[in-house]
């Protein structure tokens, strides 16, 4: 008995250690596997891949500058190995798969199985479309935006500024589709999602910056076009990030107004009727005069700010301030609910 009592604590300690080790690795999220949702997810992957691959083929691949992140590294590797393994676009498709698929597999294991699989589908679409564009160019002369005089498709008036803007805007639209739907789009974003999964308290902005900066440095040495490659790479990375931020936050952004007033009923009624926005009222007390006030909260769109201020100016003894809201979620019912008769009768009896 004494021997068994002494041997139990180490066994319990081992089980506790195993539980602690398993808790260190997060479990993947539950996935929505309805057929309609999966079909829509595949469509989003195809649309995003079409945007990104077309921007790479048409603007970036043949103008001696690289996009950001893992795709940029794949583009640089394809350019370096072109004399040994053949055409750049085909090499880039292979390097994209070699660099991204291990990251996506880790995302499927630790973040979400469905997300990891959809990222792989997105990557396969992107690589296949790049090869399709190259085949169409070889077979039917599909053009690309030639901005370099020594290129095969140079046209007078084309320049690297427009090429970097084009790849930044179009690829940013594709990235935003994937990030909005799956939380990642590949490369840097997938690595960021993995790090956030293990260390949600850490700021991972430095990682994206470091990867993009490394692409800029490599572009300078690989393409040997001096400042043109560096500036074009910086421009398309910067523009792509702006487009992603705008698509994720700017389309549904607004302004939140908090108003202190003595006339909440009249002001809220006018705001709801003329602007169609809901208003929430809270009780407040002015500490200088110790009088009862009402604190009104109302969120409006950018285009409604001017009309909101015109309404506000007509009410005296009213103070307001505003702050920008990145995105608005949810929706209340637009009609008040009727009070049940039994509640009305009970309140009258009281």
TrEMBL record:
Stretches assigned to the DUF2179 domain: 277-315
Region (Disordered): 1-30
Chief location category: membrane
Family matches, as InterPro entries: DUF2179, N-reg_PII/ATP_PRibTrfase_C, UPF0750_membrane, YitT
Topology versus the membrane: Multi-pass membrane protein
Basic and acidic residues bias spans: 15-30
Record field: transmembrane: 38-58, 65-86, 92-112, 119-137, 157-179, 204-223
UniProt name for this protein: YitT family protein
Keywords annotated in UniProt: Cell membrane, Membrane, Transmembrane, Transmembrane helix
GO cellular component: plasma membrane
Highest taxon of the lineage: Bacteria
